[in-house]
Amino acid sequence: MAVLDAVLVLGGGAIGAPVRYLTDRAVQRRHETAFPWGTITVNILGSVVLGLLTGALVAAAAPHSVLMLVGVGFCGALTTYSTFSLETLRLWEDGAAFYAVANVVISVGAALGAAFTGAAIAQSIWPT
Predict the structure, then answer these.
(1) Number of neighbouring beta carbons within 10 Å of residue 28
(2) Helix 81-93 crosses helix 37-58 at what angle (to 10 degrees)?
(3) Taking the C-alpha atoms of 123, 124, 125 and 127 in order, what is their torsion angle to the nearest 10 degrees?
(4) Which letter does DSSP use for residue 30 in this model?
(5) 77: which of 16, 39, 59, 98 fits an S-S bond (Cβ 3.0–4.6 Å)?
(6) What is the residue-level pLDDT of the chain in tens, covering all 128 positions?
(7) Is there a contact between 16 and 78 (Cβ–Cβ < 8 Å)?
């Protein structure tokens, strides 16, 4: 089981990492600002997927293998707390304190909201 889990995590990560990079670049290219909209976008997407997955797991509508592939692998590679932290620090160091604080508030609030929304959608699909 551990070897299969590792393979599933690796496979999900191999998909999540390029999706993260391409999404971040596509979103950031559309904004003429240093504000990290791309990172916020991937973190919200990952949070809603994890919320949906959590709801499916609670309802026993998804097996453990989906958690490994999608939750740990794909979402683990898609979302990025380290980049969020670095971008916030850079904004702060560049004298953009308002944007640094806004990044924290928007990122954390939106990601939590996305996770709760995903879980609520899952609960409406698979009531427990």
Answers:
(1) 17
(2) 150
(3) 60
(4) T
(5) 16
(6) 799 999 999 999 999 999 999 999 999 999 989 999 999 999 999 999 999 999 999 999 999 999 999 999 999 999 999 999 999 999 999 999 999 999 999 999 999 999 999 999 999 999 98
(7) yes
Regarding pTM above 0.90, the answer is yes
Cα–Cα distance, 23 to 104 (Å, whole number): 20
Q: Name residue 83's amino acid.
A: T
| 35 phi, psi to nearest 5 deg | -65, 130
The CA–CA distances, whole Å, from 113 to 60, 73, 102 equal 23, 22, 16
Q: What is the pLDDT of residue 128?
A: 80
Residues 6 or more apart whose Cβ sits within 8 Å of residue 73: 8, 9, 10, 11, 12, 13, 14, 15, 16
